[in-house]
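User: Hello, can you help with two protein structures?

Assistant: Certainly.
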Amino acid sequence: MISEDDHSLDSKNKHFIISGELALILVVIINSFSVVLMLYSGSGISAISSVPYAFSEVINNISLGTFTYIFQTLLILVLMILRKKFVGEYLFSFVVGFCFGKFVDIHAAWINHLPLTMTSRIIYFIISYFILAFGIALSNRCGLPIIPTDLFPRELSNIIKASYAKVKIIFDVTCLLTTIVVTFVFLGHIKGLGIGTVLSAFTMGKVISSIGKMIDKKFEFIPYVKKIFHKKHEV
């Protein structure tokens, strides 16, 4: 189901084979970290987490992590409605999203110990931006159910037959607009968005595609759970 632009290379051209499970675990850890780090940098939260952040600010007795997997559940439901059928793989994606939300709260608990200067803020944003882009590109290739906020634009691009980069940008911008409306209506001002959020929303889709093409040149991801499952059925 993986579909980014021109994402199909013969495996003989790839030099390294990596477990899809290992890649997915890495994605959950680094993407949740990059979301929290981007917010901590003061440049604004990432577009994919801006909607859960907006609601966590309006209803502040519920954590960002909790609102994250609530939002992800809604995305899964929308995908099933668009496909007009039940997709079991999407439910596994929700489990991954739940773990992602928990890691968001874990990272949020210790992130305040990092130094916070003007220089470090810039460094934090740059690091978080590229880690997040790399993590999404990696998740799109692991061959397993992935975080719903990453799954949604990938699957939607398949459903509507549009390029991943375009769908990703539209999805991120829609998240931004939703965050603006929610925070302005309920808080009286726009909160959580910054120059980093806007920059990410309008550029990350293309950066993800570029990083993905570089990954494709050297790596192949094999989910061993699926490999074992297929072997059992062959027997």
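That covers the first. Now for the second protein you mentioned:
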Amino acid sequence: MSDSLNHIREKPFYKLLLGRTVMSLVSILAIVILYIILMSMVDHPAFPFHIIIVTAALGKTLVITMTTLKGLSKLIKVCHSLERLLWVFGLIIIISIFSFATDYACLYQFSHSTFEGVPEYSISYLYNLYHFFYFSVITFSTVGYGDIIPTSDIARFVVMLEIFLSFFIIVFALANIKKIHING
């Protein structure tokens, strides 16, 4: 067994997990905080806000796919329990869903014509975030009820990023299920 795997086995699991996912978590948290600050300060129609949202969504997707899942593949080789790995994948899925919900809410704040089906009475950012969290869960799970529909090209692109990420996470989990070493 290589020295790097022996070094990984000596550290507690949660310390390893935090070390492997901290960059992604901090990046996504920073993007969410930036969104919330910009939502209250920026005149949306006068600012190219949609370009910032698409760039941040693309960057977030790349960070999750490249760093987090790469680090998790190393953890899978020395995993201590299936339950912990399920928690890890659940955490990644929840973070992904919530971060895309903020993207959708920001796009909707930029222009109400980016999505159809959002209730007219939902004028506050937090209430819109609730609706787009629902939409993000439906999109991530690939159910697609059709009650909220992206109508702009930018909104469709961000939706495609979420679908790509959901497929990538599910395929990654299924492809690595046989590699999990469970200590009995």
